[in-house]
Amino acid sequence: MRNEKGSVPLRYWILWCTILVAAVIVFYIVLTPIWMGLRAIAWLAEFRARRRR
């Protein structure tokens, strides 16, 4: 039985892997430290607000 759709060209695999690597870099290297920084600021603000009461 033959595959009706055929195989995926190599250029599409390379494009897919490149986009995937870029997305992982953006998420883990750029967005995660920003998110952690915002959470730390929120935690400090909450801690200071509780301390003032």
Provide structural commentary.
By secondary structure, the chain is an all-alpha fold. It has a domain at about 25-53. About 80% of the residues lie in helices and about 0% in strands. The model has no long low-confidence stretch (mean pLDDT about 90). It is rod-shaped. It is built from 1 helix and no strands.
In brief:
The protein has one helix spanning 10-52. It has 53 residues and is mainly α. The radius of gyration is 23 Å and the shape is rod-shaped.
Write the layout of secondary structure elements.
Blueprint lengths: L9 H43 L1
N-end to C-end Cα span: 75 Å
Secondary-structure element pattern, one letter each: H
Nearest-integer average pLDDT: 92
Classification by helices and strands: mainly alpha
**Rg to the nearest angstrom?**
23 Å
Percent of sequence in beta strands: under 5%
Figure out the total of helices.
Answer: 1
Uncertain residue ranges? none
Largest sheet properties: none
Structural shape: rod-shaped
Can you count the beta strands?
0
* Helix percentage: over 70%
